[in-house]
Design brief:
6 strands, 3 helices, alpha+beta, three-stranded antiparallel beta sheet
Length: about 90
Amino acid sequence: MNTSPIELDFRAVRAWTTGRMVFVELTDGRQIGFPADRFRRLHDASDKQLAAVTLQVSGAALRREEIDEDITVRGIVEGRFQPALPASHPVA
């Protein structure tokens, strides 16, 4: 019997921030959150810049225009984050 892996298409219907946490709600109703500090540009972003998130590519990506940052929803679901910043990294 031949089986092929199912390619899942992760899409968000909304994205928002609460404090320094970023959240997405997926089309299947799941909500996933992660600390902004897991991405260098988000770590260095102001609260206003962090909150200015839009969905792009039919919900497949999060975009923050002012800081030129794109993050794929697939990457969020799969836990593909940048390594944690060292404790000595200055907080913006």
